[in-house]
Hints:
Strand content: over 45%
Number of helices: 2
Oligomer: single chain
Shape: elongated
CATH superfamily: Lipid/polyisoprenoid-binding, YceI-like
Structural class: mainly beta
Number of strands: 11
CATH class: Mainly Beta
CATH architecture: Beta Barrel
Helix content: under 10%
Order of helices and strands: HEEEEEEHEEEEE
Distance between the termini: 23 Å
Largest sheet: 8 strands, antiparallel, barrel
Strand order of the largest sheet: 1-4-5-7-8-9-10-11
Amino acid sequence: MTSVTRSELTGDYVLDPAHTQIGFVARHAMVTKVRGAFNKFEGTAHLDGENPANSTVRVSIQADSIDTRNEQRDGHLRTNDFLDAPNHPQITFVSTSVRQVENDRYEVTGDLTIKGVSKSLTIPFEFQGAVMDPMNNFRVGLEGSVTINRKEFGLTWNAALEGGGVLVGEKVVLEFEISAVRQSS
């Protein structure tokens, strides 16, 4: 990784879907976790290296691209019991503020909309670096995660377990491994 100045980071970026992962982790049957990801999404960002508060982010995820490596479960997650992908095809995040909290740590606050319900949340991100890749693209990397309560977004389906508890946990950890490429001016 090469060292870059803050001003060199400034510009408009797009997410690189081949090198970005938007994933999640949810508790299953009280004792294990299910991991998954969304395979289709697009995102843009304007980064202001000198004044991060002027930065913005927009992400749109195809709800029906959910992938937990189990087609039956994925099919259920696409129904009205969960994401209702036919009626709410997009999950979106639009930033409302960006704050630098440490040298390489940022908090991105914005509106997350799932199944037609919007909630404000703050996602902590760690800047992983910037580099000119072999294809002569200026690329930045960020990683972050945040926990949400799925019921706050209308994802309330569940099933009681015979021994007590429920099949699907309320808390879902959203995980972001971002690779974004600066666009030519």
